[in-house]
Amino acid sequence: MKVLTFGEIMLRLQPFGFKRLSQADSFEACFGGGEANVAVSIARFGEEAVFLSKLPANEIADHCIAALRGEGVTPYIVRGGERMGIYFIEKGASQRASKVVYDRKYASVNTLTPDEIDFDRLFDGVDWFHFTGITAAISEGAYRTLSVVAEEAKRRGVTVSCDLNYRKNLWTSEQAGIQMRRLMPFVDVLISNEEDCKQVFGLEGKGSDIEGGVLNADGYADIAAKIRKEFPSISSVAFTLRESLSASANNWSGVLFRDGKGYFSKKYAITHIVDRVGGGDSFAGGLIYALASGKEPQDAIEFAVAASCLKHSIEGDWNAVSVKEVESLVKNGGSGRVAR
Predict the structure, then answer these.
(1) In what residue span(s) does the Carbohydrate kinase PfkB domain sit (predicted)?
(2) Are 205 and 225 in contact (CB under 8 A)?
(3) Where do the DSSP E strands lie in 196-326?
(4) Rounded to whole angstroms, how far apart are CA atoms 78 and 89?
(5) Residues 2-332, CATH architecture
(6) Are residues 261 and 297 in contact, defined by beta-carbon separation less than 8 angstroms?
(7) What's the CA gap between 250 and 26, in Å, rounded?
């Protein structure tokens, strides 16, 4: 299995502990970005992962590339442009939500053009291509390049997955709906949650209250059916189901719709969230791995949800877990006892 992802990777800066940004006098640093996070998950699961992006020719970008290689990811990085994007995160606790501030204007990835990519080299041996709505939203240039890469993947018979990942600070619902609909004919597997489906496609599950943390799982079947009707190329639709009790406690599950059937995972009560950033990406990485490995739909959604559940216990964007650890959670549950 060889998985290609394309998107922006940023420098992540976070105050130590649970300090607010307004209190910070120093920061912990690491790297993260939706598609890069997925690539790391795939590599951690022992499969080949390639990450496509563009970064400036400086020491910070060098460190980022080395970090990707250290996780087992093969970077396909075009060098050039002005800078690498940065995001600052303030971790929430209890009733105080986490907060993210972006500083990504003029990032190098926005200047990447198809002419800078050797597609034969990029797609050599690739079985699966993954992207998110974030890359589509960050700039017109990134959207154009993404469109070409997605079309090329489809032309070459590569399975394509998309995580809608709607970000209201990047574009409006109307813009997202227009642009993402143009990309859907290339997509085989769509990943989303209820809020993103509502914002991008105007679809909402019956009986759910997003703000109140109430989810009606049965309502997702109707959403999935409407997506399949509008976009016939999509064979599978997966949703993450998050019941947000507080910034520190969530109930977490998922559902996969395939061949007209819905497969619901078990629900995990996450009572002490260490870091939820990258939770959706770890779900996507787990689902891609499971489906590409030939797992049955029920086993695939269980694996994806368990992988994402574990990510909530890990600092940083990247899900530092193995296939064995995920499968152990699926099989035995999470007692938290010391593994000897």
Answers:
(1) 2-311
(2) no
(3) 236-244, 250-258, 261-264, 268-270
(4) 27
(5) 3-Layer(aba) Sandwich (3.40)
(6) yes
(7) 29
Output the CA–CA distances (angstroms, integers) from residue 130 to 9, 19, 150, 192, in the order listed. Answer: 14, 34, 9, 13
pLDDT in tens, 76-106: 999 999 999 999 999 888 888 888 899 999 9
pLDDT above 70 covers a percentage of the chain that reads 94
Per-residue model confidence (pLDDT) at position 334: 59
pLDDT in tens, 139-184: 999 999 999 999 999 999 999 999 999 999 899 999 999 999 999 9
Both tokens assigned to 269: 């009560």
* Residue 132, H or E segment: strand 128-132
Spatial separation of the C-alpha atoms in residues 20 and 332, rounded to whole Å? 37
- The rounded Cα 268 to chain-centroid distance in angstroms is 19
pLDDT of residue 338: 42
Long-range contact list for 185-188, CB < 8 A, 24+ apart? 185/154, 185/231, 185/233, 186/150, 186/151, 186/153, 186/154, 186/160, 186/233, 187/150, 187/160, 187/161, 187/162, 187/231, 187/233, 187/234, 188/159, 188/160, 188/161, 188/233, 188/234, 188/235, 188/236
Q: Judge whether 285 and 309 are in contact, CB under 8 Å.
A: no
Give the start-to-end residue ranges of the domains of the chain: 2-332
**How far, in Å, CA of 234 to CA of 189, rounded?**
6
Query: Distance between alpha carbon 60 and the CA centroid of its chain, in Å?
Result: 23
Report d(CA 149, CA 143) in Å as an integer: 10
Give yes or no for a contact between 100 and 92, defined as CB atoms under 8 angstroms apart. Answer: no
Q: Which strand (E) or helix (H) includes residue 69? A: helix 59-70
Give the sign of the dihedral formed by CA 318, CA 323, CA 325, CA 331: positive
Annotated active-site residue 124? The verdict is: no
Catalytic residue (one of 163, 188, 196, 281): 281
Helices (H), 117-265: 119-122, 133-138, 140-155, 173-183, 194-201, 219-230
